[in-house]
Amino acid sequence: MMIANNRKITKAQNVTMMISSVIGVGILSLPSDLAEVVGTDGWIILIITGLLSMAALYVITKLMLSYKDYTLIEIGRELVGRPIGDIVSLVYLIYAIIYIGLIVRIFAEVAKMFLLINTPIEIIIITMLLTTAHLTRKGIECIARIIQVTIPLVIIPIIILWLSLFPNLDISNILPAFRTNFISMAKGIPVAFFSFTGIEIIYFTTIYVKNPKKSIKFNMIALASIVGIYIMAFIVCIFRFGKEETVHLIWPTLSLMKTINLPGAFIENVEGVVMALWVLMVLGTLVVQFYCGAQVLSRVTGSKEFDFFVLPMILFIYFVALLPDNIVSVYNYIYMLNKYLSSFLIIVVPVVYYIVSLLKKKKRGTANE
């Protein structure tokens, strides 16, 4: 399937979409989740999980570059046949719907706590979903351009704000290091894994990349940058709050912003500015996953357009978003999503597909001889 030039995106835009999709809301609870399981050695878990995620991303990217004009749907049909390939694709659709629903619920909970105290959570959810749906219908090029602009606007100011905290941080809070045993380390990897979900979007975005030959290099650099941001977020939280207080905070990275005081700055409410920036990041996360889900429906049904699948998806996403009773239930659902669907799509599917593709190429080579 050939893609028109006006629907192409650059490797940099593809990378920014992946960064937006990965960081999203995962960074909010990451420090407290890791501190609870491995204490102050969470940065070690982030390095290990980051390397494992890079290995998975490498396999996915190699697979996509082997079939440049295909998405997950067409690759599945080519390698394992139409029925099984379509089932795997529908698993991605279910994953995307559940993922978007849970992410928008976390967004609504955070927005209600920090910004929209008197607004019903249902209104926050439906407003965000309609905004996301509208942007999704504009297509991949529009989405990529917007996210390419917003990512630097979000990440650079937040890192600067974190750096402004360093004079007031207690470095001794992270010592002594390397105290966590192997079993606890192993338990920490699944905890950190949620914060790396989102790399699977390249199943549906690589096909639109102009000259994708160096995509592996770009993708690795992007994921390494994400690991660096996560490590910085964890270390700053531990330095600022200590292990015990970090564990008891729901969203320690947001709590950090309450402690920032910029003498002589013209910004009085730093927390409000950070929340506004974070809304842009979450919007990017939702839009990209929304687009991928709509692409599954479009390609499985053989439709030439995807945009009229977007609005019907809102009904299912809205139901998922309201299913959990509270924020604790939301994170329980996320744990189950990661344990089964995320692991299946990010680890099992690319490995199996890649092995099958190698076997088929070897078989063709033998037949040609």
Report on the architecture of this protein.
α1 packs parallel to α10. The protein contains 14 helices and no strands. It is globular. The protein has a single domain, classed as Up-down Bundle (Amino acid/polyamine transporter I), CATH 1.20.1740. The chain has 369 residues and is mainly alpha-helical. The longest helix has 42 residues. The mean pLDDT is 88.
Give the C-level CATH assignment. Answer: Mainly Alpha
Structural class: mainly alpha
**How many helical stretches?**
14
Could you list the spans in which at least 5 consecutive residues all have pLDDT below 50?
none
Characterize the main sheet: none
How many individual β-strands? 0
Rg measurement, Å = 21 Å
SSE order, one letter for each helix or strand: HHHHHHHHHHHHHH
How does the overall form come out from the CA principal axes? globular
Estimate the mean pLDDT confidence: 88
**CATH architecture descriptor:** Up-down Bundle
CATH superfamily: Amino acid/polyamine transporter I
Task: Report helical residue fraction.
Answer: over 70%
Number of domains: 1
Strand content: under 5%
